[in-house]
Amino acid sequence: MENLTAHESLEIITSAIQKTKENIKEQSFFYLFWGWLTVSAALIQYALISFTAFQANYLPWVILMPIGVIVSVIYGKKHGKQRGYETYLDMFLKYLWIVIGFSFFLIVFISIVLQVNTTIFILFLAGVGTLVSGMAMKFKPLIAGGILFFAFTIVSLYVSAQTGLLILSLAILTGYLIPAYLLKKS
Amino acid sequence: MYQELDKVLSQPVRLIIVSTLMKVRSADFNYLKEVTNTTQGNLSHQLKKLKEAGYIEIEKKFVNNYPKTICRITSQGKKAFADYVEKMKTYLNLENP
């Protein structure tokens, strides 16, 4: 049995704790992926409404969102396996976005039943997720992004559903994608 | 007066494992092998000792037909680690009055 001195013990503890770093940069994939996916869905739907007579203009969402879920699950599993550990922040962010993601589907259903503009609620939910993520990561651009989403939520109250899709795209670009690129570079 | 030290934690590899698991929610065998810089056999042995002491829990599962060992610290392990650190602080105060 090898007995350690107090100094050796503290050195071992410090070194082990420092080796396992919280790497928020790794989160950027999800933000970039979902950011571009939702911008694509919103702009395709806008184009379908503006330039075609196609009735089922919501189809881009129906097709792209499930693809997003599948890709995220596969990437998350693969990445977790490569890294070999999961931090509490990883776990928190994962559950936060799973719940927010589920809420998106629910809010779309609710807004269809109530016949109200879905974009308002999507912006609001995205704001909650982005702001909480930014605060948990202590990453200011994402905190600012979350606040921007709330500002765009108010703006979307005063525009048509069609223009709301452009507002949504602009909100994701400024409040989500720009912070995500900054996160990737951090 | 020196207090009785936790014999489970006063061994380098076991202390590295517990320190690492204090910081993360879970870590797999390969990652712990990397941070402890020890052999597979020794790591298995030390994990078993920690499990017997009730300081960690070990989950074994299959991912893509490969066995995967995932370790997590228990509340008993957290308490033992906190006590150990407190004793170390006392020791250091005694050494540096």
Task: Give a quick set of tags describing it.
heterodimer; A: 186 residues; mainly alpha; 7 helices; 82% helix; elongated; B: 97 residues; alpha+beta; 3-stranded antiparallel sheet; 56% helix
State the total count of DSSP E strands of chain A: 1
User: Looking at the structure, what is the overall shape of chain A?
Assistant: elongated
Oligomeric assembly: heterodimer
What is the mean predicted local confidence, pLDDT of chain A?
A: 89
Counting H and I runs of at least 4 residues, what is the number of helices of chain B? 4
Gyration radius over CA of chain A: 20 Å
Overview of the molecule:
The complex is a heterodimer of chains A (186) and B (97). Chain A is mainly alpha-helical and 186 residues long. Chain A has helices at 6-19, 28-51, 59-83, 88-114, 118-137, 140-156, 161-185; one strand at 85-87. The longest helix of chain A has 27 residues, at 88-114. Chain A is elongated. In chain B, β2 and β3 form a beta hairpin. In chain B, 56% of the residues lie in helices and 22% in strands. Chain B is of the alpha+beta class and 97 residues long. In chain B, strands 1-3-2 form a 3-stranded antiparallel beta sheet. The longest helix of chain B has 21 residues, at 75-95. The A-B interface holds A 1-10, 12-13, 15-17, 19-20, 81, 83-88, 90-91 and B 5, 7, 10-12, 15-16, 19-20, 22-28, 30-32, 34-35, 63, 68, 84-85, 88, 91-92, 95. β1 (85-87) of chain A pairs antiparallel with β1 (24-28) of chain B, so a sheet runs across the interface.
Concise structural overview:
Chain A is mainly alpha-helical. Chain A has seven helices and one strand.
List the helices and strands and how they pair.
The complex is a heterodimer of chains A (186) and B (97).
Chain A: H1 6-19, H2 28-51, H3 59-83, E1 85-87, H4 88-114, H5 118-137, H6 140-156, H7 161-185
Helix pairs in contact in A: 2-3, 2-7, 4-5, 5-6, 5-7, 6-7
Chain B: H1 12-23, E1 24-28, H2 29-36, H3 40-52, E2 56-63, E3 66-73, H4 75-95
Antiparallel strand pairs in B: 1-3, 2-3
